[in-house]
Automatic annotation (TrEMBL):
Top-level EC class as recorded in UniProt: isomerase
Molecular function GO terms recorded: aldose 1-epimerase activity; carbohydrate binding
Cited NCBIfam families: PRK11055.1
SUPFAM superfamilies (UniProt xref): Galactose mutarotase-like
GO biological process, one term: glucose metabolic process
Protein name: Aldose 1-epimerase
Source organism of the structure: Streptococcus cuniculi
Xref: PANTHER family: ALDOSE-1-EPIMERASE (PTHR10091), GALACTOSE MUTAROTASE (PTHR10091:SF0)
Superkingdom field: Bacteria
Entry-linked PROSITE patterns: ALDOSE_1_EPIMERASE
Active site: H174, E300
Length: 334
């Protein structure tokens, strides 16, 4: 059974999925969000929460409304808070100076999504309609976010979308991990492998510079495995700029391009996705009530940020009537 519980305000619900291995996935309709990923790795089968979490919708609203949430229509920053779509310029809500971040204000991560449970597949599907013109984005866009906890200990996320106008769409999930289970510890000693030859450097405004740089000889080279600590020294100007990592890597087309192992080597996380890039943010500007500085990291699979305004960054155009599908799988072993 999928257990349904209150989660703060009257509108908020929490859903708990469990598999035969004892792994648990808890979700909420507030922001179509992952709340907890719990694995029985502690002594006597005790559960370890691998994510940065809050206990209610009100707590997310008060402290940080992004963790675990579905980010739509467009993740990341859009330069000039505008983009050209099929020859027409659209202006978006400017919620950072000269930029639109994560789709603007009061967007889907702060809304209460509809939900449909499917106990037969141990999954549930959240859905929402983004209204034409909301935060400046064209099209009535129907979005679904399906989460499934598999028998082999994976969390599968599938996003779909369809619009009645040409628009742009580049979603992601903003779950934050700390595989120690303790977000008061930084993640410096997590061992990371990323199958990526290039990453995207940022400018002073945190927007991509519009170029790709080789990871060779930089703290962005995780091809053979390294710890986040190599960037936390802030010796490289790109790490110093954002106080850690807040960058996209262009993923090699391999089955599991990302792997992270906990410092105690008890938990292994691998990622598979049909998206071209992963953005890793190491909670460099924390809400201290949620986690410490560098106390968590994201693995946001998506198209390249600001692709709508950068030539050669790929297309995030969603044409009228086209069906969009994004798949990401977080696989856990312990």
């Amino acid at each position: 059974m999928i257990e349904v519980r209150p989660f703060g305000s009257e509108k908020a619900k929490q859903y708990c999925l469990v598999n035969e291995a004892g792994m648990q996935l808890t979700l909420t309709n507030f922001g179509a969000r992952i709340v907890e990923i719990l694995v029985p790795v502690e002594e006597n089968g005790g559960l370890r929460n691998l994510t940065m979490s809050a206990s209610s919708d009100e707590e997310y609203q008060a402290k940080d409304a992004y963790p675990g949430a579905t980010i739509v229509p467009v993740a990341g920053r859009i330069s000039g808070a505008q983009a050209e779509i099929k020859g027409q310029t659209y202006r978006f809500t400017e919620n950072e100076p000269g930029r639109t971040l994560h789709g603007g204000v009061n967007t889907a991560n702060e809304q209460y999504w509809d939900v449909e449970l499917d106990e037969a597949t141990n999954s549930l599907t959240f859905s929402i309609q983004l209204a034409d013109g909301f935060n400046g984005f064209p099209g009535n866009v129907r979005v679904t976010a399906r989460y499934r906890l598999t028998p082999d200990n994976a969390v599968e996320i599938t996003y779909t979308a369809q619009s009645d106008k040409d628009t742009i769409f580049n979603p992601t999930n903003h779950v934050y991990f700390n595989l120690t289970g303790d977000v008061t510890q930084d993640v410096a000693d997590h061992r990371v492998r990323i199958a990526a030859q290039t990453y995207v450097p940022l400018g002073e405004d945190n927007l991509p510079l519009g170029i790709l740089e080789a990871v060779d000889g930089t703290p962005f080279d995780f091809r053979t495995g390294a710890t986040f600590a190599q960037g936390f020294s802030l010796e490289h100007p790109q790490n110093a700029l954002v106080k850690g990592y807040d960058h996209p890597w262009i993923l090699d087309q391999v089955a599991e391009p990302v792997e992270v192992i906990s410092p105690d080597q008890k938990v292994r996380l691998t990622v598979a996705t049909n998206q071209p890039a992963v953005v890793i943010y190491t909670y460099n500007f924390p809400s201290e009530e949620m986690a410490t500085y560098h106390g968590a990291f994201s693995l946001e699979c998506q198209g390249l940020p600001n692709a709508c305004n950068v030539p050669d960054f790929g297309s995030i155009l969603l044409e009228k009537g086209q069906i969009f599908e994004h798949k990401t799988r977080y696989q856990f072993a312990w």
